[in-house]
Design a protein that fits this description.
Elements lengths: L1 H10 L1 E2 L2 H7 L1 H7 L22 H9 L4 H26 L6 H13 L2 H4 L8 H20 L5 H16 L4 H13 L7 H31 L8 H4 L19 H6 L21 H18 L7 H21 L7 H18 L4 H14 L9 E2 L19 E4 L8 H4 L4 E3 L11 H9 L13 H10 L4 E5 L8 H6 L2 E2 L5 E4 L10 E8 L2
Parallel strand pairs: 3-4, 3-5
Antiparallel strand pairs: 1-2, 5-8, 6-8, 7-8
Amino acid sequence: MVLSGMYSIWLGIDVNFDLLNYHLYNPYAFLNGKIGQDVFAAGVHSALNPLPDVYFYWVFFTFFNSTKWIGFFMGLPYGVLIWLVYQLARDVFKNTMYPKTYAALAAFIGCSAAGIISQVGTTTNEIPLAVFHILALWLVVRAVQNTKKVYFLYFAALIAGAASGLKLTGASFCVALTAVVLFYIRRFEKPGKVFLVYALCGIAGFLLTNGYFMWQNFVLYGNPVFPFYNAVFQSPYFDAFNVTETRFFPTSWLQWLFYPFFWAFAPGKFVAEDTVQDSRLALFLVALIVWVVLIVKNRLGGVKKETAASLAVYCGIGYVVWLVEFSILRYAAVLEALCGVVLMGVCAAVSKKRWGLYLALTLLGVSMWGYKAPEWHHEMFLEEAVIFDTKPQIEDNSLVFFMHLPSSYLAPILNPKATYMGGFKSNPDDYPEEYKERAAQRNNISAQYYRFHFEDLQREKIAQHNGPIYIVSVDWPMIVNPVTLARFGLKGKLEDCKRFVTNFTVYSTDLAICRVYKNK
């Protein structure tokens, strides 16, 4: 954990887009009672569960003036992940010729994967949540090994359900975990009762971390998982459409079958916004198929058959669900962490002599060849976490409108007592000719962005507000646009604007805050 914290410091402070948009704002809104008072200040991301970011929020403001400690504490979960994968691998390979060596290589190969290593110290939350999912898997493996420890299944369900509640992308690994339980359910006495309790514990874990926020979303937006599954829930703030992130899906049957091979030995942007090259998941798929054959033949080199089968089922189902649902490398952290265990499982089964160890070292070398991890953006640590050239002054009873993403990280820093809203969509045709192209670029996030319907609620909020009103934009000097402001019953002048920058202004160097007024 100490080494992971130091590595995170070396990387620099995390400044990814989502952090600036909602990873800081959401826990602030939750801890300060702003949910329901602010109006989509971080756009649609305002509706996401804030609990995964509470730790970051605490670290960020506790060490606001000692910024390297932010990096250190944000790197600690990576150390926990390495330790946990190593311990799981020790359990898997304890009866092989080289248990510690295989376990160490498994942890190194898995936890150095491109998707994991690129998220060390960041706010994506995939690493700490992978810790929970792998812990749940380990508990299930222990229960399968010793059916008298059936309570391990229940703890596993509680942990995996809670992790999925924190971030819904983890549901794919809940499916994989359940597949393992069903595969071996008949090993337990009263299997029907065991599975029922397992399912209830999983639901309880999910509701424990997400039930309150689902209720809030239902009350505020009419959809407990807003904006997802809106074809079912029909929230008026979104089209009757089920949100699906399709940017990284395979585009041909060949890619569907062999997707990891497309970025294994040549750099590309198949599964990430940035270039990635990593052979681990490709090697993992080949090794998984070989391991299944070895499991059937019961040639496992000392690995217990039920342990190997549990891991094979979990990894196989987890990979398929991940591929079909997301195909996004960041969400494959659990699979990446386990890929070394699968590779070492094949090595252990090859021979009881040194050939297995030689193969393990060969696979380690291949996995490091031509390696490139994505970069989600880091900056140097400065004397304060956020530094302004000139910090805007906001009165307590102000209404602040973040007119473009990502800006809502400013909310707890400008004035926590103000009211904030955001999620604005600009119309390029409203701008003068010299700004139309730039305005159009502000709306290139996704076609789904146009499916959100916040403006009526925002206009109502503005009409009811009696204090000062400010707009914050990344589009200086085109921020004051009479047509745009008129849509919200506002007017303003360029001389009422003040340009400012922060060390987090990495997506545009031209922030500005403007005092605007209601049209009478």
